[in-house]
Write a structure and sequence with these properties.
heterodimer; A: 15 strands; B: mainly beta; four-stranded antiparallel sheet; 2 helices
Chain lengths: 359, 412
């Protein structure tokens, strides 16, 4: 009898604990203030419901030791409520964005973190021109062009200090243009020297002078050969060797890492794949999309193969490829192609009451 | 002549040489590029570097207009080649069996004359099919397998619609017959033997069907809507849809050709629609609330299933395949254009470069066929009026702006 009672007691006790252990993975803090006193919840939605009593709920998953904020973003362990002001577009140049973060480290690179009193807590390290928040004094970003070090010429020379189409001056462009100009000047001097040598050979009567003219002409020919050869050899090996660049990611693989990383490390190259942060994904307004996205330059057709390839990959994953534009606040000249995995909102008229008269 | 004088002479000659070279390299006016070699697609136009000018991009997509792109392949090997400089009203592809020839048949907008040009026949020159002069045509649809055309033009504020039947032989006359004035929109049946058109009424609009030359007209339906477009995708069903306008609710309706019964299909803001060859799917575009750009859906007529279509093509820029009922071809912008673009596009106020795609309405798959201005050939273009050949080996398109006619080799 004692054994039966013991079994019943233990079973009852266990039964009382089962509900607590089933949902022990998820805990919810009703706001950042009491994040330390998390309570078990049955589902994420029951925690992350925006209600006046819990304006900033935090979901804590004990199995993965991750905290998730109201907008579904994984955040570091909350330390407070901060305002993060940062630039959030792929072209890296337009207006600042503001979001709420629960840890200064969650503010993207280049962003300025302010606490609720408006005091600047921390300015994140920047690797790209960052937006300047109105409340914070910001350093003037370096003049850059396509990720290269820029400069302001004292006296601009069309076609040398800037690109042929009037693009912004940068040091690699200057070197490129100087290379072309120096090759031209070298070729001109060689031709001139060849002419002088030839004339000297013809008009001189003394043998030493004739030999000097011949030597000059021979040297000029060697010079021409060297000038032409320098370009030809480099061009034969790889034409890219003739393009100077200081861009750290000339191939366009400037990864834009998710939330904890840098939103901008330069303008992505035409046809390159980038990784969108969760904020950038939300900014497309297209619902659930892959973080991987294709970037193409507007007005160019050279990346059509990449569009086809990206579309094939998207279809293989039962998605649809759609165009979006991040940072539409003027001046953006790149399109972001994303892969969406939901059917979207349909507008089919399938209900009996749906008719022309209803419109 | 002493050595000093000779050196001075050499110096002057050298300086002149240097200045000459400097002028040659730095100040010489740019010479125009050499014309492209003969295309082999027909010999009307070989210049494939024509740029389309006067275009603007829109929809927050920056300020890139359409630019011409240099070619990297010989024209004869490229997918896209210019067929006629235009302006062209409309074009179709006609295939003859004896001899087996594929002809691009097009109407010149200048005089309404109709020409044939064999495709992929080196040295071919266009042949006049009809020399009936109808200047100012702005829209045309082909009937009776390309042997007749229905064309609209404006005459003193009245929209005229004329049927022109081409002579079967050099001695036969050209048949010309006028349809009612002020037709809002018209469509030709898939077999090319009938025409459906919309006329405005005080309470909306009415739809009529008739033989292709306009005879035997019968009223089929009436609707309380006036801004409508009509198409005839499958033999038994008409598609009637409201004209697309940004922010305005639209509707697409199916109309039974025999009974005139009207059935609503889809509705939504900014709606524009197109149906496949057996009317099993309706491809429509609408602006979902909160979305930055409109989305294009495939709506299954039986069952009502919905599916988002990749790359959001505009139904206005689509045409059905003539060999497969579930295949259709579309042009779609190569960049993000945003909401309201279609209004600007219709008004001619916005234009971006397009690429050509093939879609399958049954599977929802999409394939990029070519992009004018890329290594495929041609120059960047805003495309409209696509037409496929009966065997799907060729596509024709007319560019907005200069209305030039281009051909695309799709292969077998």
């Amino acid at each position: 009898m004692k054994k039966i009672l013991a079994v019943i007691t233990i079973t009852t006790a266990l039964a009382g604990f089962i509900p607590a252990t089933v949902y022990a993975d998820l805990e919810c803090g009703s706001s950042f203030d009491n994040y330390a006193t998390f309570n078990s919840v049955q589902s994420a939605s029951s925690c992350l419901t925006n209600n006046p009593a819990a304006p900033n709920p935090i979901l804590y998953d004990t199995s993965t030791n991750t905290y998730t904020s109201l907008d579904g973003k994984v955040v570091s362990k909350p330390t407070g409520v901060y305002t993060c002001t940062y630039t959030n577009d792929l072209s890296g140049g337009t207006g600042p964005q503001t979001s709420t973060v629960y840890n200064p480290a969650d503010c993207p690179s280049g962003g300025v973190v302010q606490n609720q009193s408006g005091q600047i807590v921390n300015q994140q390290q920047t690797s790209a021109p960052a937006a300047t928040p109105a409340a914070a004094p910001a350093a003037t970003p370096a003049n850059t062009s396509n990720g290269n070090l820029g400069y302001t010429p004292l006296e601009p020379i069309q076609g040398i200090t800037s690109g042929a189409n009037g693009s912004a001056p940068d040091f690699p462009t200057l070197l490129d243009n100087l290379f072309n100009v120096l090759i031209t000047i070298g070729a001109l001097i060689a031709v001139l020297s060849l002419t002088i040598g030839g004339v000297q050979y013809m008009v001189s009567e003394a043998l030493p002078n004739k030999k000097r003219g011949l030597d000059r002409a021979r040297a000029a020919l060697w010079g021409m050969l060297l000038v032409a050869g320098a370009w030809l050899i480099l061009h034969t090996i790889n034409p890219q060797l003739l393009n100077f660049t200081l861009n750290p990611c000339p191939s366009g693989n400037c990864s834009i890492t998710p939330s904890s990383g840098n939103p901008n490390t330069g303008t992505p190259a035409n046809g390159s794949i980038v990784t969108l942060s969760s904020d950038q994904q939300a900014q497309t307004g297209l619902g659930p999309i892959d973080s991987q996205a294709l970037v193409t330059n507007n007005g160019e057709t050279s990346a059509v193969d990449q569009i086809q390839s990206f579309n094939n990959q998207c279809m293989q994953h039962a998605g649809v490829m759609l165009a979006s534009n991040l940072g539409t606040a003027g001046g953006a000249n790149q399109t972001v192609w994303v892969c969406q995995h939901t059917a979207g909102t349909a507008y089919a008229c399938n209900t009996p009451g749906c008719s022309a008269a209803a419109i | 002549m002493n050595i000093r004088t000779s050196y001075i002479g050499i110096g002057v000659a050298g300086l002149l040489l240097v200045f000459g070279f400097a002028w040659f390299f730095f100040f010489r006016p740019a010479t125009p590029a050499n014309p492209a070699p003969a295309s082999g697609f027909g010999s009307v136009v070989n210049n494939n570097s024509t740029s389309v000018s006067g275009n603007q991009s829109a929809g927050g997509s920056g300020t890139n207009g359409i630019q011409s792109i240099s070619q990297t392949q010989p024209v004869a090997q490229q997918k896209i080649v210019e067929v006629a400089q235009g302006p062209v009203v409309a074009a179709t592809i006609v295939q003859t069996l004896r001899p087996t020839t594929t002809l691009a048949r097009y109407i010149s907008a200048q005089d309404g004359h109709v020409y044939d040009l064999p495709l992929d026949v080196p040295g071919a020159v266009p042949r006049v099919v009809s020399n009936t002069t109808i200047p100012g045509g702005y829209r045309a649809l082909w009937a009776q397998g390309g042997s007749a055309v229905l064309m609209q033009y404006l005459e003193g504020g009245v929209t005229k619609t004329v049927y022109v039947g081409f002579p079967a032989s050099s001695t036969a006359p050209t048949r010309v017959q006028f349809l009612p004035d002020n037709i809002i929109d018209f469509a030709v049946s898939p077999d090319g033997k009938s025409v459906a058109y919309l006329l405005s009424t005080p309470g909306g609009s009415s739809g009529y069907t008739a033989a292709a030359n306009g005879t035997g007209a019968q009223k089929l339906f009436s609707l309380p809507l006036s801004q409508l477009l009509i198409s005839w995708p499958s033999p038994g069903t008409l598609l009637v849809a409201s004209k697309s306008a940004s922010g305005v609710p639209g509707i697409a309706l199916a109309v039974d050709v025999k009974s005139g019964i009207v059935s609503p299909l889809v509705y939504g803001p900014d709606l524009t629609a197109f149906a496949d060859g057996n009317f099993s799917h309706v491809i429509y575009q609408t602006q979902p609330p909160g979305a930055a750009a409109p989305l294009t859906y495939i709506h299954t007529v039986r069952g009502g299933a919905e599916r988002v279509l990749s790359l959001s093509p505009y139904p206005e820029q689509c045409t059905t395949s003539r060999s497969s009922v579930s295949v259709f071809y579309c042009a779609t912008p190569l960049e993000y254009v945003g909401s309201g673009y279609l209004d600007l596009w219709h008004a001619g106020a916005a234009s971006v470069a397009d690429m050509l795609l093939m879609f399958n309405s049954a599977s929802g798959t999409s394939t990029v066929l070519a992009a004018p201005g890329s290594s495929d050939g041609g120059s960047q273009a805003d495309i409209f009026q696509l037409a496929a050949s009966p065997d799907d080996h060729y596509l024709l398109y007319v560019t907005k702006g200069d209305r030039s006619l281009w051909g695309v080799r799709l292969g077998s």
